[in-house]
Amino acid sequence: MMHRELDDMLGTRWRKPHFVTNPALRWALIVGFVAYLIAAVLTIEVDWGRVYEGLDRGWQFILAFTAPDFISRAGDIWEGLLESIVMTVAASVVGILISIPIGLGAARNIAPLPVYVICRAIVAISRALQEIIVAILLVAIFGFGPLAGFLTLSFATIGFLSKLLAEDIEAMDRVQAEAIKASGAKWMQWINYGVQPQVMPRLIGLSMYRIDINFRESAILGLVGAGGIGATLNTAFDRYEYDTAAAILILIIGIVMALEYLSGVIRARVQ
Amino acid sequence: MPVLEKSGAQVWRRRTQGQSLLRWFGWLIGVAVFLLCWQRISETTTWFFVWDAPRIAEDIWTRATPPRWEYITQLGRPIWDTLNIATLGTIIALFLAVPVAFLAARNTTPSAWLIRPIALLIIVSTRSINSLIWALLLIAIIGPGVFAGVIAIAIRSIGFCAKLLYEAIEEIDQTQVEAITATGASRWQVMAYGIVPQILPAFAGIAVFRWDINIRESTVLGLVGAGGIGLQLSSSLNVLAWPQVSLILLVILAAVVISEWVSAKVRGAII
Fold first, then answer.
1. How far apart are CA A43 and CA B82, in angstroms?
2. Which of A131, A201, A224, B104 sees the fewest Cβ atoms within 10 Å?
3. In chain B, how many domains are there?
4. B56, A140 in Cβ contact below 8 A?
5. Domains along chain A?
6. A156 and chain B: CB distance < 8 Å anywhere?
C-alpha cells in the first residue's frame, strides 16, 4: 500500500503541504479574511488632503530630532521627568510588596481554594483594566496629581507580577519544598526555605522588567492628569513645539534603554 | 562557612558579618529612596481630596449604576473601528517588522557594524514609546481620526514584533540553512526554504499575541482623538455621563477578554 502511494508520487513535482488541510475550510478562511480586510479598509475615512498637508509637519518633527531643545523648557521637563521617576519607584516598590502575598495566594499548590479564587480574581481584574482607564477613574476619585498615577501603577504591577509569580510557583520543584517540610518547618519557614529560593531569580527578573514597564506607562499617565512627564509632552505637542517634544521622547527612550540594560545585567547575575 | 560564636558553641548562619552589613546597608538605601519618593508624592497631593475619596467613589458608583444599556446601539461603529485599528495596525506592523528583524538578527544581517545598530535603534525607539504618545504625535501631524490610530498602533508594534522575531531568527537551526545552501540555492531561496519555515510558527504566534495587545491599546486610543471606542469614552467622561461610561467600560472589558481568548485559542492551535 505504502509503496503504491510512493510510486504514484514518483515523477510529480513536490508541493508544499498546506497549513489547513481541509480545502473548503482553507478557502473559507482566506476569502473571509480578505473580505474583512476590504471592508475594514473601506470604512476607514482618510482625509488625504489633510495627510498631505501633515507630511510637511511630520518632516519638521523628524528634523526636530536632529536638533532637540532641552533648554527652553528645561524646568518643566525636569519636573515632569522627576515626577515620573518618583512614581515609578514608589509604585514598583509597593506593587512588588503587595504582589508577593497575592502571588502566593494565587498559586494552586500552596493556597487553599477560597484564597486561590480571591487572589485569582484580583489578578484578573487588574489585568483586564488598562492603566490609562484605571488612571481616569482614580483621578476622578483622588484628584489630579501623582498619587493617582502611583496607585494606578501599583495596581497594574500587582496583576502582572502576581500572575507570573503564581505560575512560577506552580511550576516549581515539589521535592525541595517537601524536604523542607519534612524537616519540621513551620509555614513561614517552608515558604522561606522551600519555595522562595526556587522562584527568587525569576521574581527579581520580572520585577526589573516591571519597573521598566512602569516607567514607560508613567510617561502617558500625565495625559489624563495623573502626574508625570505626559502632561509636559502633551503640552509640547499641543503647542507644536516639536523640538521640546523630541527632547522629551529622546529622554524617555534613553531612560528605557538604560533600564533595559540594567535589568539585563541584573537578570544575568541572578540566574 | 559563616558561623556565629554563641556561648562557646558555633552556630550556622547564612552570611558573614560583612555580607549582612552590606545587605543591611543596601536595604537602608532602598528604604530611604522609597521614603524620599513617597514624600515627593505626598507633597503634591491634596490630602483633603484623598480623605474624601470613599465618599466620592461611592457617589460615582451610584451615578454609574446601572449602566445605560440602550446606549450600546451607538457603540457598534466605534467597536468596528477599534477592531480595524488593531487588525490593520498589526498587519502593517508585521510587514514593516519582518525586514527590520532580518536586518537586526546577527545571522542574517548584511552588515553587523552599520545596519544592525540602525535596526536595533528602530526597535528600541518604537518599542519604548507608548501607542498613546504615537497617537498624540500623529494627530498633530495628520489630524485626528481612525487613520492616525492605525498608524500609531502600527509604529508601536514594529519594535515589539521585530524584537521577538529577530530573537527567533537568531535561534534557528543552522544545519537546515546549510543543507539548503548545499543544494546550490540562491540567497533568496535559502531565505524562503531554510529560514522562513523555521520561524513561521514563531511569526504566527507573535502576530496573534500582538493583535491581542493591540485590541487593548486601541480601545483607549480615542482618549487622545485617534478613533475607536475610546472616543465615546472620553466624550462621555467630559459630560460626566457616568452610566454611559460604565457601559463603555463593560464593553471594553468584554473586548479584552474575547481577544485574549481568541489569541490563546489560535496560539494553542499553531504551537
1. 12
2. A201
3. 2
4. yes
5. 80-270 (1.10.3720.10)
6. no
Task: Tell me which of B132, B160, B251 to substitute to probe the interface with A (most A C-beta atoms closer than 10 Å).
Answer: B132
Q: Facing residues of B9 across strands?
A: B6
In-domain check, residue B67: no
Same domain, B30 and B140: no
pLDDT over threshold 90, residue B94: yes
pLDDT at A2: 60
Query: What are A159-181's pLDDT values in tens digits?
Result: 999 999 998 888 888 888 888 88
DSSP of B131-190 = HHHHHHHHHHHH-SSHHHHHHHHHHHHHHHHHHHHHHHHHTS-HHHHHHHHHTT--HHHH
Query: What is residue A244's three-state secondary structure?
Result: helix
Predicted pLDDT at B88 = 92
Q: Do B249 and A133 touch (CB under 8 A)?
A: yes
Percent of chain A with pLDDT over 90: 20
A90 and B252 in contact by Cβ < 8 A? no
Interatomic CA distance for residues B100 and B109, integer angstroms: 9
Instruction: Provide the chain B residues 198-227 that lie in CB contact (below 8 A) with chain A.
Output: 216-217, 219-220, 223-224
Q: Is the pLDDT of residue A1 over 60?
A: no
- Residue B56 domain-assigned? no
The CATH number assigned to the domain holding B226 equals 1.10.3720.10
- Confidence band, pLDDT 50/70/90 cuts, at residue B157: very high
Q: Mark yes or no for CB contact B216/A130 under 8 Å.
A: yes
* % of chain A exceeding 70 in pLDDT: 98
- Does B137 share its domain with B196? yes
Domain of B31 in residue numbering reads as: 3-48
Query: Does A87 reach chain B within 8 Å, measured CB to CB?
Result: yes
Average pLDDT of chain A, as a whole number? 86
What ipTM, to 2 d.p.? 0.81
B87/A89 CB distance under 8 A: no
How many CB pairs lie under 8 A apart between chains A and B?
146
Per the document, the length of chain A is 271
The minimal CB distance from B128 to the residues A230, A245, A252 is found for: A252
What is the least distance, in Å, from the CA of B130 to any CA of chain A?
A: 7
Share of chain B above pLDDT 90, in %: 20
